[in-house]
Amino acid sequence: xxxxxxxxxLALAFVSFSFKPAQAEDAMQSTFISAGYGGLIGALVGxxxxxxxxxxxxxxxxxxxxxxxxxxxxxxxxxxxxxHMAVRNAAAEVRDGRLxxxxxxxxxxxxxxxxxxxxxxxxxxxxxxxxx
Length: 132
Fold this sequence. Notes:
Layout: H1 2-17, H2 27-51, H3 64-85, E1 92-95, E2 98-101, E3 107-113, E4 118-124, E5 128-130
Parallel strand pairs: 1-5
Antiparallel strand pairs: 1-2, 3-4
Helix pairs in contact: 1-2, 2-3
C-alpha cells in the first residue's frame, strides 16, 4: 500500500510540474525547471529500484527515493546551466588551420511554416564551422 501511495504521489508531482510556460527565457527559470524535472525523474527511478528490491520490509530501502531525487536535482541543474552557458560551437571547427572537435549544443528556434500555416519549433546543431 505504501509503495503505491509513493508512486501515485510522484506521478502527480511529475504531471503538475509539467505545466510550465511555453518559453522559459530567463536562465534561472529554465535551470530551475531542469532541476525540478531531474529531481522528479530521479525520484521515480529511485522508487522503481525500491520496488524491485528483494526485501519484504517496505522501509528497508526507502532511502532510494530521496537519493535518486537528490542526484536528479544535481544532474538537472548541471544540464540547465550547461544549456545556457555553453558556447554554441559546431561539432567540428577549423580555425587557424587546426581542426577541433566540440560537443555542440542544440539550438531551438521558432519558425513559421508557410506550407502548414503554423508556428514550428525547430531544433538544429552545427556540424562544421570554418573560420576564414
